[in-house]
Amino acid sequence: MAELQFREALRAAMVEEMRRDESVFIMGEEVAEYDGAYKVTQGMLEEFGFKRVIDTPISELGFSGIGVGAAMNGLRPIVEFMTFNFAVVGIDQIINNAAKLRYMSGGQIKIPIVFRGPNASAGQLGATHSVAFEALYGHVPGLKVVYPSEPGDAKGLLKTSIRDDNPVIFLESEQMYGLKGDVPDDDDYTIPFGVAKIKREGSDVTIVAHGKMYHVAQQAAKELAKDGIEAEIIDPRTIKPFDMKTVIESVKKTNRCVIVDETHPFCGIASEVGFQLQRDAFDYLDAPVQRVTVPDVPAPFAKNLFDLWLPGPKQVIEAVNAVTYRS
Amino acid sequence: MAKKAEEKGFTPTGVVYKSTKLPKPTSKTHDKLGLKKKDLLNLYDSMYRQRRFEERAAQMYQKGKFGGFLHLYIGQEAISTGVVHALNDDDDLITAYRDHGFALARGATSDECMAELFGKATGISNGKGGSMHYFKLEKHFWGGHAIVGAHIPLAAGLAFANKYNDSDRVAVCFFGDGAVDQGALNETFNMAQLWKLPVIFVVENNGYSMGTAVERHSAGDLHKRGDAYGMKNDIVNGMDVFTIIEKFQEVAKDVRKNQEPWFLEIRTYRYRGHSMSDPGNYRTKDELEEFKQSDPIERLKTYVLDKKLVKQEELDEINKKIDKEVLDAIDFAEESDFPEPEALFQHVYVEDDFPFVK
Question: Among this protein's residues, is A230 annotated catalytic?
Fold first, then answer.
């Protein structure tokens, strides 16, 4: 076990998998000679050379599609987007080609590709640089979607993603790249998809939170504990497949649930989790499920508006108060 | 609709006569191209199969035997046929949605192609793709793609993997003139040239992007798009199978040796509408008739008969064999089973036990 930054954990996963399998390579903007826009790929060019660490032009549509074609033809590409906000330029290749060619070819085609990069907001960057995409990609059959919150999960899940024979959307956060955490050294440390982790035990309320919002939930839980409310925090870790079983088991114990989600409220992750809870755990709920999300508006720039827009511990505490009838 | 003289407008307007101007065909004889009698018969066999298959498919469509879209390749068969002859069997082919001809030319059977139209489990894509999404990976035929231009980067990706693995396979990507206007083409051309990918990009310029004549949708000659990227390019007559063979032998050799892309503009013509619902009022009957005079099948037939290389009876024999093959394929398609209900959830992911949300 070593203490690594999130970016180092991601790099360890890629480096180990590239040493293990010659068909794995990485391409994206600034991944090679610049050493990575966020230094995730730092040093990889030196170890693996220009054949396997490839700088692309700013052509998300083009290089996403080249990645898919290379995956069809036997390689295992890792495509880094400088942010998933830019992946929208290439999203046709992800939604129409990566996700659907296996189905349309009657199972003839296999597309083992990982699209990875930062997702969601990272401070005052304006509306087009602040979108959380997990609900959008989660909507598309044929894709798997991962959004880890801690370095250890990031390493294990990225290794699983690279070894997976399906297209995987692997979401990160600019604001978490420097976050430190314990990371297993094991070369074969993989974490299966669809297995949530209970990261804080509690009996009063279940909080479901993934990615950056997981840390917001932890901050809220600390505050709530001072008031005698013990929250159980579940980090689903993968959005698709999503481990509802662990959530439902927890709700059977706490009878209350708050979902914290950085996507917009309409058709977001919280909508789906909330729906499944009312259908499958109706008799166990002592209060309507509450959600904390960004509002149904784009991200603003002005600091005061941005702070209103992005969910923080305060909103989580308010939602917990609502489900525990303390407000 | 005619534009009034004083009316402001953007897109060039009007019905154009002669949307596509054919460059000269090759003057080389079959001997010079290394074609034996067996090859000539194979070329005829392949072209006639594609033609007959689609004529019957259109009849079945009109009878309401199957749904979906149906885009016919009729008139363009010299291209698929010549390319398949000129390339190695393990070179990678990928095309757009007008894909029946390529699949058949590459050795897919009439049975599996017809069954796919009918949406049957015995179809070339197990009934999951339909007319526009034929795939036959064992023959290095990569589809069958119906988002215009979206398979162009895939072709570069196929070529990338070939180069990465030190294979000498060449990837060949076909698309229509409408696809030239897509951003995907321009992004891919840039990277393919910059990265020296062994890929041949081919626009089958049949004069119309659906109902919009090429001069109404594209500025400048299509092949000159290659010039912007320093990509070798040329114009080719697409109604003559010998010309296609000659050009693709030359270009494939160059791409294999120099590991660099090419862009070919093949001028051709489709006799039928864009799809089955197209009345074709954007073009003149004269234009259609004129192109039918240079029909690729008739052209080859005339050549082999005039030169007494083949007897009429030998061609008749092929026609008879294929007419029966295609009728049998219709029976095969009709008698085949639809996919089982379980197939709905198969082939979404590699694993069969993916926990789908219910």
Answer: no
DSSP B141: E
- How much is the ipTM here? 0.96
Cβ(B267)–Cβ(B222) under 8 Å? no
Helices and strands of chain B, counted as H and E runs: 11, 8
Would you tell me which residues 185-214 of chain B have a C-beta closer than 8 angstroms to some C-beta of chain A? 187-188, 190-191, 194
Q: Report the length, in residues, of chain B.
A: 358
User: Is any Cβ of chain B less than 8 angstroms from the Cβ of A56?
Assistant: yes
Domain containing A223 equals: 197-323
The maximal CA–CA distance of chain A, rounded, in angstroms, is: 60
CA-to-CA distance for B278 and B151, rounded, in angstroms? 24
Q: What is the mean pLDDT of residues A164-179?
A: 98
Mean pLDDT along residues B184-206: 97
Domains defined for chain B, CATH in brackets: 41-336 (3.40.50.970)
Average pLDDT score over residue span B315-336: 98
- Across the interface, which of A69, A141, A165 has its CB nearest the CB of B157? A69
pLDDT in tens, B86-98: 999 999 999 999 9
- Residue A57 burial (CB count, 10 A): 13
- Write down the pTM of the prediction: 0.96
| Contacts of residue B165, Cβ cutoff 8 Å, sequence gap at least 6 | A74, A75
In this structure, the answer to whether residues A59 and A88 fall within a common structural domain is: yes
Tally of domains in chain A: 2
**One domain for residues A128 and A205:** no
